[in-house]
Amino acid sequence: MGVQNDFVIKEGVLEKYEGAGGSVRIPDGVSKIADSAFSRCSGVTEVVVPDSVTEICSHAFFCCTDLRRAVLPSGLSAISVGMFWGCEQLEEIRIPEHVKKIDAFAFEGCTSLRTIKVPESVQEIGAGAWNGCSSLVSIALPSSVQI
Questions:
Q1: Phi and psi at residue 131, in whole multiples of 5°?
Q2: What is the 3 state secondary structure string of 14-62?
Q3: What is the pLDDT of residues 95-139, one digit of tens each?
Q4: What's the fold here for domain 1-147?
Q5: b/e string for 68-96 if b means 16 or more Cβ within 10 A?
Q6: What is the reported pLDDT for 111?
Q7: What average pLDDT does this structure show over 4-14?
Q8: Is the pTM of this model over 0.90?
């Protein structure tokens, strides 16, 4: 589940994951996940982000090719640019109820993602948010969304 030594954390910001992979639980107290913190961590299969995290920066999980599941914090307000770009095995994602924006290319190349339910709180979806999601068969969008 990830031990404290697996993370480079400075002043509450998780800058880099250096663990072996598998199921990873980010430590409580982390408030932000930096750009590309998990980039190309192919052995990571699951990530559980605690509610203390309020911001996840762009490309945080870029090309985590074995990532199947991510549990996002309830207070997250945005899915950033390319957050899950190239996560080919991502099957399950629940977008938290407080998210207002899904940035461009957030889920680009998530070829195993089959369904998405966008919460009523989302007001804006960036270009190409689901580009290359070849298995996507269902997407539920609220009427408030600006595309």
A1: -55, 135
A2: EEEECCCCEEEECCCCCCEECCCCCCCCCCEEEEECCCCCCEECCCCCC
A3: 999 999 999 999 999 999 999 999 999 999 999 999 999 999 988
A4: 3.80.10
A5: bebebbeebebbbbbbbbbbbbbeebebb
A6: 98
A7: 93
A8: yes
